[in-house]
Amino acid sequence: MKIAVCVSHVPDTATKVKIGSDGKSIDPAGVSYIINPYDEFAVEEALKTKELTGCEVVIISLGSDSSKESIRKALAMGADQGILLKKDGFYDSFSTACALAKEIKEQKCDLVFFGKQSVDYDNSITGQLTSEILGFNCVSVVVSFKIENNKITAEREIEGGREVVETELPAVITAQKGLNEPRYASLKGIMAAKKKVIEEKPAKEVNNLTEVIKLVLPASKQPGKIIGTDSSAVPELVRLLREEAKVI
Ligand SMILES: Cc1cc2nc3c(=O)[nH]c(=O)nc-3n(C[C@H](O)[C@H](O)[C@H](O)COP(=O)(O)OP(=O)(O)OC[C@H]3O[C@@H](n4cnc5c(N)ncnc54)[C@H](O)[C@@H]3O)c2cc1C
Question: How big is the chain by its Cα radius of gyration, in Å?
């Protein structure tokens, strides 16, 4: 068995994003990037499986040179190999899945972990698309994972409870928060990761099915109103809630 983990390199959620001059993409100036938080759960689960089975873990990311930072973080946590699929231009989720699927096939991986969602574009679809392209089984939004004799038992969080699912390899699993507690990279791991070579390859050409027409920032919030500071303000507050805000 060989495991792949697909990681995306995303703007830190604390970053205040600005729209670029083309109106369709993010202005990268001043944006700090991190490994997609859900992908850390994916990396951790792959490493736990490696510890049980002795298999190899390869990290694959589609992106530009800066994505190497996220690949290196996963290598420092304990992954064996890193691959950067270098892209030029816009890849929608389908093109991303096509490029990842091609590499997963070349690497002969039969178990693939994704995050359930990337926190920048939030499509929550790349893992499922990749499994379809590869013809793999897929279990999404997983909070518990076990593998024995190529048989997978996974638990998914659903409204009011958990769903327990069984499937077999080859399979794609998309990781939800709660699946595990991602480990911190040790100093030894960080030093070892610095020496590991990240293989770079051109990504499979785009086959986009969607086009971004424009990005729009949310409307700015109305400033707050202070009606008063003691109980005498209550009648006016009630009137405004009823007549202006129309919430009561
Ligand atoms: C409004 C909008 C603007 C966009 N602008 C750009 C742009 O300017 N430039 C551009 O190139 N793309 C752009 N994209 C495309 C976007 O980068 C891809 O769709 C992205 O790679 C996948 O994000 P997602 O939300 O579809 O991922 P999801 O489906 O939410 O991600 C699920 C999981 O898939 C895996 N994954 C996702 N992306 C990658 C990746 N790149 N490499 C490895 N694993 C991955 C991760 O495990 C992740 O947790 C835009 C998309 C939208 C909707």
Answer: 22
The model carries a pTM of 0.90
Instruction: Kindly report the protein residue whose alpha carbon is nearest to atom 5 of ligand 1.
Output: 25
Under 8 Å CB-to-CB from 108, ≥6 apart: which residues? 2
Q: 245 C-alpha to center of ligand 1: Å?
A: 37
Contacts of 159 (CB under 8 A, 6+ apart): none
Q: Count each helix (H run) and each strand (E run) in the chain, helices first.
A: 6, 11
Query: Which domains occur in the chain, in start order?
Result: 2-202 (3.40.50.620)
Residue 206: its H or E element:
none
> Alpha helix locations (H) across 137-229?
187-195
Structure confidence by residue, pLDDT tens digits, 109-165: 999 999 999 998 999 999 999 999 999 999 999 999 999 999 999 999 899 999 999
